[in-house]
Model the fold of this input.
Amino acid sequence: MTKSFYAIHTHGFVRVAACTPRVAVGDPGFNAAETLRMAKEGDAAGCDLMLFPELGISAYAIDDLHLQDALLDRVEAEIAVLAEASEKLAPVLVVGAPVRRNGRLYNCAVIIARGRILGVVPKSFLPNYREYYEKRWFASGQGLEGLDVDIAHQTTPFGTDLVFEARDLRDFIFHAEICEDFWAPNPPSTQGALAGALILCNLSASNIVVGKADERALLCASQSTRCQAAYLYSAAGPGESTTDLAWDGQASIHELGRELACTDRFPTEAQMAVADIDVEKLRLERMRTPTFNDAAIAAGHPERRFRRVRFDHKPHFKDVGLRRPIDRFPFVPDDPARLDRDCYEAFNIQVAGLAKRLEATKSRHITIGVSGGLDSTHALIVAAKAFDRLGLPRANILAFTMPGFATSEGTKANAWALMKAIGVTAEEIDIRPAAKQLLKDLGHPFAKGEPVYDVTFENVQAGLRTDYLFRLANQRNGFVLGTGDLSELALGWCTYGVGDQMSHYNVNASLAKTLIQHLIRWVAKTGQFDAAASEVLLSVLDTEISPELVPADATGAIQSTQARIGPYELQDFNLYWITRYGLRPSKVAFLAWHAWKDAGAGHWPPHFPEEARNAYDLAAIRKWLSLFLFRFFEISQFKRSAMPNGPKVVSGGNLSPRGDWRAPSDGTARVWIEELEANVP
Done:
């Protein structure tokens, strides 16, 4: 089948469902029918993998009925019915059932796909404490490897050494464990992950007691993080016996510690949580984390003893939408509590980094250029807090506003208002006379009155500002605090050497432009400074992002950075996914399209202005992504290779050659641009 750009399978996603069906106590016919009904729903929803609860075909809380041959015969008969029905269904079904083998009974996961029983995985750890008595009925699966079992007229692999892999859908690789298994210090899923499984499934019954839901969520998040995997969890729900226990039907899907979907608890009807797992991203994350490979080595390379059960999945490659949350702003969470926590941490990381540098250099002064724009504003308030932390007077912060040929009255006024409100030593140096002299010495047409505003014209101003700051630092026994941010470094939107690319220390180097906007808003909203300063901070947020190096045109329109290098909200999106995970450009475009195609869909960060809620079509996304690839991979690395020191603040937010990013300065963007052009319509 032809792959569509709009299909999740094209971009390394697998649609999964964690299901909580209704069950009837000791009635395999009813339970199998309910499982099949949900399987058909999942098939219609485009699911690839569906997980059901522990012992779901027999029901879990049936005690000694597990040892009745009549019931076990019926369980096996119903598994045969499910297997036959699965021939016409796309999802792989992972169902729970008691399975007999060699005179023993095992609590098992039975994996069914396209008419085949792919394998049977027995439970390793049998709880036999408090309300649990599983050893009364079941044998442990520990140590059972390399075996087969006859079930439902098929002979299939049996053991705890099974990993399942689709031949025709890359990275669709999963492992199954059962309930108590992941409460163990060393869950079987850890070995399954080290053997290559990217999706970890837990068929659970797990009765509910007060506080247990939080424990389950913690374990699911932890295991998905530690194993760099997705973790699916399905607990028994409505219909189980309440003779001595109760059930809340908790089902959830986690990926790298993040909950993607969950069901309501204490349902009265069947439910399923559905989400698209980014298995390609999981594989890439493991590739860039040597610790994961070292763990496999330490465990004796589990892949050598695990059997890889392969099957033909027959992916549809159709557009079925995308069922997972995609943050428009990867550096800015839309959850208010998390955003508040992230802003607190980011701001204090910067403050702590600068304070340490001041102590180490025994400096009592810094020089900083203040333009009235976002970056210098944020660097200045970080500096103020660092000086407060060290007990140094804010007057030791030597702040300079340096108007040039295109400096607006608005930004200049904001710069002065902020410097006064913060209480730093403020001065103004008009760089225009020096710039005119330099342009004259260069023989530049502007010196003769011609309106030529080329890169030399711009960089003369940018360079003079930096030159002044360095000499002022020499003169006044301090160092230059940089203000340039991560977004500008990624795009090379900075003047190299004697320009805003250089400083003695840069507190903003790990902060994307979109995050700086929210940090300034957080500083104002949380009262880090007095009301006068907060008012200026909010005014800065309303200012057009501009280098203010070229005079306004005949219409009065000022120089716009984003009109030249693209909207920062898109470029920060591109930056995050390409550098943090190494995704293909076409996949980044796919994610961006889902995140940005509809301004009315999804969530926005708190306090985000309604008038700034933009949408972008695929053509715009493709255009600006192509520009990003060219600037990032081909023409800007030399600037990043000579970055000043600065603290890493966010994951995926550092381009220092001493930190997260190492690349050749003379590389080419050809591979990335060609991939984009070939695969994005």
User: Anything to note?
Assistant: The two ends are 18 Å apart (CA to CA).
